[in-house]
Amino acid sequence: MQARVTEPLMIFGPPGLRSFLTCVLDATQTTLGFPLTIHEIEQDGVILENAHMTVEARQLVHGVKSFGYALLEHERPGRFHRDLAQSAGIPEGPLYGQLKRGYDIRLPDGQIMLSKEFVDPPIRGRKIVILGDTISCAASLQLAQCADVLVHEATFSDEQRQLAQISMHSTAAQAAELAVHAHVSTLIMTHISARYEAQSTDHPLLQEARAIFEHTYLAEDFSVFSIPRTGLVAEDAR
User: Fold this and answer.
1) Domain limits, the chain
2) What class of enzyme is it (predicted)?
């Protein structure tokens, strides 16, 4: 039996999100066992920050309001080498905590001990960027900078670039070009037009994108990707 959820569920989205969700819940006569906290985004900026991560939103360019989101994990302290501290004669207790937090310390005999001599460099936080519907724009480039994963729509092939522009969507080539320019590690393409029906391994849009940016995947229902702190993202076997 699953534990009952009682904490509020926070949902972020463009203006109109509240009325949409209210309509759906009312029409389906759905009763939730937990409260909803709905945040309608009105402007660019940080929309959530907690002890683990920061989430930034920026408005993209589409026929209706569409946003992109950058999820930035906070860096973590490097490993503390207790054995080195003990060998240096540092007494256990509050001084260890100061070293772990990056502070240099002074011992009772006057010696200065540098934190970097006992603690590894901080572990970089991972960055995931998820874009809504959009054409190529400055906001998507700003959000995507140095992302470990970029989730980008690829509605059309580049042969349909004019149609993509008219409908305010992107091509696979444009998604790949953004990944290159933003120094992204991995690109995952979504929002594929139903006109492209090939299997994912030889999908024409995947081939188009990989010709520009090799480390590209095509998102599918139930796909799972592992995002390591170092190294490349990999799709898990199903």
Assistant:
1) 1-40, 42-76+124-235, 82-117
2) hydrolase
